[in-house]
Amino acid sequence: MKGLFYILFAMLVLAACASKVDSRGWCDINGSVSNTERDTYEGLKVYLTTPSTSPVLLSGDQSAQAGVIDSCEVSDGRFRFALVDSSKSRVLQLVLPAHQLDSFPSTLPVVIEHGVVSVRMGSSVSTGGTALNDKLQDFLLARSNLFDAVTTDTTGNALSRFAGEFSKLLLTTLNQNKDNVLGEYIYQQYHEKFKN
């Protein structure tokens, strides 16, 4: 009788442990929308796509479009993607289609790598939480700061200054990431800047 009791107890312990197995994926993307009027995004889909997918094609519910990998709905101002184990990191794109207060879709590149990626979309965008997503965010902020400097420059030589500084930013970022998917992504997105 004691033997049967121990077997039943062991089965209960195993069942309890099995129910607490981590449900996270190899790469979790935890997102939030950054608009003060969160309700405008409730129920909308956020798409995980290839970087070459046009966000304009994703207006409405057209998840059958080529390049869409997955989608999920915004609920309480949040969304989540749990990607299963993958041996290869890559860069994908998140797309939140334009809606009500937005003139354009909100897009954000994101590095798919092991860990938890935190993203914000809507009126502002950001990515972080893993090493390569932190580096990607640094690049995106530096690029944005350069664009801002061009739009506020009144000296008349903003474009030539921007071209030089942007080339430096690209070369620095590529050299720092030459052996990872972030370097590959930046080269693919901006390789035409190197033809001159």
Give a quick set of tags describing it.
alpha+beta; 4 helices; 196 residues; Immunoglobulin-like
Describe this structure in words.
- The protein is an alpha+beta fold and 196 residues long.
- It folds into two domains: 24-129, Immunoglobulin-like, CATH 2.60.40; 130-196, no CATH class.
- Helix content is 35%, strand content 24%.
- The chain has four helices and eight strands; from the N terminus they run αββββββββααα.
- The chain has helices spanning 2-19, 131-152, 158-176, 181-190; strands at 27-33, 45-49, 68-73, 78-83, 90-96, 106-112, 115-121, 126-128.
- The strands form two sheets. The protein has a four-stranded mixed sheet with strand order 4-1-7-8. Strands 3-2-5-6 form a four-stranded antiparallel sheet.
- Helix 2 (131-152) runs antiparallel to helix 3 and helix 3 runs antiparallel to helix 4 (181-190).
- The radius of gyration is 22 Å and the shape is globular.
- The termini are far apart.
Quick overview:
The chain has 196 residues and is an alpha+beta fold.
CATH architecture call of the largest domain: Sandwich
CATH fold group of the largest domain: Immunoglobulin-like
Amount of helix: 25-40%
| Tertiary shape | globular
Q: Distance between termini?
A: 84 Å
H-E order: HEEEEEEEEHHH
Q: Identify the CATH homologous superfamily of the largest domain.
A: Carboxypeptidase-like, regulatory domain
